[in-house]
Every structure is written in C-alpha cells, then in structure tokens.
Design goal:
Elements (H helix, E strand, L loop, with lengths): L15 E12 L5 E11 L4 E6 L12 H12 L7 H11 L7 H23 L3 H4 L7 E3 L2 E3 L5 H16 L4 E5 L4 H14 L5 E6 L6 H11 L7 E3 L7 H10 L4 E4 L3 H9 L5 E4 L1 H4 L2 H14 L2 E4 L6 H13 L11 H4 L11 E2 L2 E3 L12 H6 L38
Parallel strand pairs: 5-6, 6-7, 7-8, 8-9, 9-10, 10-11
Antiparallel strand pairs: 1-2, 2-3, 4-13, 12-13
Length: 414
C-alpha cells in the first residue's frame, strides 16, 4: 500500500483504503446495449466515492482485463488522500495519457477515477462537486436530443415517432446524425419538415468524421434545404484539420469538433478548423481537464457545447456539475444518457424537466448508487468473438459496411 501524503493536516485527510470495479450493461430504448464500469473507492472514514468508466462498448476488441485494472488502480490509489485532488489529477494525467486512437479509451478511464475522487471530496465537505469548481452559475441546463441514423423507412418512422413523443415531453432541440445513407437522411428530413415543421430547433448535423470534406459540403447543403442547423459537426476525418478548415471556408455555418484536451483545442484554433468545440469529460480525462478546455475556449473566442459519451446518471452528473460551474456554455447539452437507457444503477436518476437537465445538488456528485441494481445489471466485460464483415466497400458506397460494436451492417448508435 502506498504511503499517504502527510503534508496536509490530518483533519483534512480522507485516506483511500480500497478500490473495486463493477462492470454493468445498460440497455438503450433503441434496443442496443452499452457497457460501463463503476469505480468504487472506500476510505478510512467510511465515506465512499463512485465514478463511471463509461460507454466502452464502442471499443469491444480492446476491452480491459478488470482484474488487472483493479490491481493497478489499488496500487495507484490505496493510501492516498482523496482530498488532494490537484496532485492526484496530475498523477492520473501522467499515467493515463492517450496515444493516437486510444485517447478516448484512456480518457474515459481517467475520467471515471477522477469522478470518484471528486465524489469523495464533495461528500467529505458536504457540498456538491460544483462548489469545488466555484459554482453554480446555473442549476439547470437546456438539452439537445440526438436523432440516430436512418438506414430504412422503418428507422424513419421510428425517429419521427420519437420526435413527436419528446416534443410532448418538452424537448424541442434536436441534432441529427447524417452521412451513412444520404438518401434516407434527406427522406427523413423531408418527412420531419412536413410532420413537425418549425416546432423544433435543429441544433446540428453530425457527420461523425466518416465523410470526405468535399462530400460533407454537398451532403450538408442537401440536408439544410429542410432545416438550417445552428452548426455542423465532425465534417472531416478526425486528424484532417486542413479538411475541416476547408469545409469551414466553404460553408456559411459554424463548424464544431470534439477535442481531446486543451492543447488539442489550441491546435484546431490555429488551423482555423472550428468555430465551436465539443467538451466532454470522457474525452479529456475528467472534469478538471474539461474546465481547462472551457477556459482555453473563452480565451480563444471559441464557442462550446457541453458534451458526453452518453453515461448513466452518475457520469451525466459529472457533466452537469461542470456545466453548472462554467459561464461559457453556448449551446444545449447533448448529455441525455439517463433518458436513452432503460436501466440505470442510480437510486435517484438525473432529472429532466421541460427540456432541461436539472443539476444534482446533493453532496458529491449527488447520485446514490443502488448496489443491488448494480448486481442485477452486472455483465462480464471482456473480449468475445464478433461477426465482422471483412469485405472492402466500394469507394462510392457511402453506407458503412462494418459495425465493430455488433458486427452488423450499418451503425445507428453514433
């Protein structure tokens, strides 16, 4: 066990004594599933902090060995003072650094650990996490709901019915994933315009980095005949900053992109690739890094979106506490995991009302975990065989051929 840092007065110490990992699977209303790992920290004071290593289903061929990971985290954290957030966050940034395409994978893990530490600190001080960040400046956050991809007439009918239902529940801002089947994209938008008209705001068209920049411009112009989005997102392959900048020059509409950390935000600004940055704890490695990104965006004159990887109520609460504590949130948040999932490990799910997410105000993250429900949702995360289509698609075929999450043709989730 590591020796605790004794620089702080003993009364300010909450020493971590144990780490346990709890893998779960939560079904979505769409019928898909997402996998998460809850990170539970025990302490000498009897307090517990819980974080969420969230939505790792997108990386099924690189699932972690949870026994090994638990030993690693115990070696890292046991004996440490959970109140020393700045020091521990710096340590996490050194040990869980994304390299290449693994950035989101390690970022989500680091975010889950940091989440549990902040949950502990807030409970120890009997304050919500946003108080640790100097907030709140708001207690509710406007919500934007995603419309997932349309690959068939059945999907169109399902998505139209979903929009109608959500409008009745007070949600009137939406974003649409496009680019996998352009004819169905346009067919859906035409039907939406006819059926719903101007009752909704179209926040964005999201191309998910899967479309060539030239094709992106043509597709966006096809779709905006029906709805003029407030911005477009992920308009070129992830590392193609020149392509993003080219799309931005050719469109009279703001361009948004996800950022890995504050330095990534600066690189995109230098390339003149974006107007808006998408800020998500899971991408950056936690709440503290998200706060840095918001600060950098403010300094550079970039607008922001409070984003997500679609966590359960626990991870969504962490997003909410960040959103509560920063001034420069310019668009409705897309963090709606607790609505997407039919099951949630929380006793008290994040609440949504009249199109807004209500920021939890209890100690720590303000979410109480139901450990019996966690056991009911337990799922053995690990490598398994997937039915992958190994064929190479024709270069002119915009329909995606491989969905590595399920092995099925066409991916609706993101």
């Amino acid at each position: 066990m590591n020796e605790p840092n004794t620089n702080l007065n003993q009364k300010n110490s909450v020493i971590i004594t144990g780490v346990s990992l709890h893998p779960i699977r939560t079904p979505r209303v769409s019928g898909d599933d997402s996998q998460h790992v809850l990170i539970r920290l025990k302490t000498d004071s009897g307090l517990e902090g819980v974080g969420e290593y969230a939505d790792i289903t997108d990386l099924p061929l690189t699932m972690p060995d949870l026994n090994d990971l638990q030993k690693s985290l115990s070696n890292l954290l046991c004996g440490q003072n959970a109140m020393e957030l700045a020091r521990l966050d710096h340590l996490l940034s050194l040990l869980f650094t994304g390299r290449g395409d693994t950035g989101i994978y390690t970022g989500s893990l680091r975010a889950g650990i940091e989440m549990a530490l902040h949950d502990l600190a807030g409970k120890a001080l009997d304050v919500p996490v946003y108080v640790l960040f100097g907030g709140p400046v708001r207690t509710r956050i406007k919500v934007c709901f995603p419309i997932f991809r349309n690959f068939s007439d059945q999907h169109i009918e399902q998505n139209l019915a979903m929009v109608e239902r959500l409008l009745g529940e007070g949600f009137d801002v939406f974003r649409l994933y496009i680019g996998a089947a352009p004819d169905f994209d346009e067919k859906f938008l035409a039907a939406l315009r006819h059926q719903i008209g101007d009752q909704i705001t179209m926040q964005s068209f999201d191309l998910s980095n899967h479309v060539h920049p030239s094709d992106a411009v043509r597709l966006i112009n096809r779709c905006r005949k029906y709805y003029e989005p407030q911005y477009v997102e992920s308009v070129a392959p992830t590392q193609d900053l020149d392509g993003m900048a080219d799309v931005r020059r050719r469109l009279d509409i703001p361009v948004s992109e996800h950022v890995g950390d504050s330095r990534h935000a600066i690189r995109m600004w230098e390339a003149r690739a974006v107007d808006i940055i998408n800020v998500a704890n899971s991408a950056h490695g936690g709440m503290r890094e998200s706060l840095k990104v918001f600060a950098v965006a403010e300094a550079l004159g970039l607008r922001t979106i409070l984003s997500t990887t679609q966590e359960t109520s626990l991870g969504t609460a962490a997003e909410a506490h960040v959103g509560a504590a920063v001034l420069n949130v310019h668009y409705p948040t897309v963090a709606i995991g607790p609505i997407l999932y039919t099951e949630d490990p929380a006793r008290n799910r994040i609440r949504y009302a009249d199109g807004y997410m209500i920021v939890p105000d209890g100690p720590g993250l303000g979410i109480e975990i139901d450990w019996e429900k966690v056991e009911a949702l337990r799922y053995q995360i690990g490598w398994r065989e997937y039915g992958i289509d190994h064929s190479v698609p024709d270069i002119h075929d915009l329909q995606w051929k491989v969905n590595i999450s399920t092995g099925l043709k066409g991916m609706r989730k993101k």
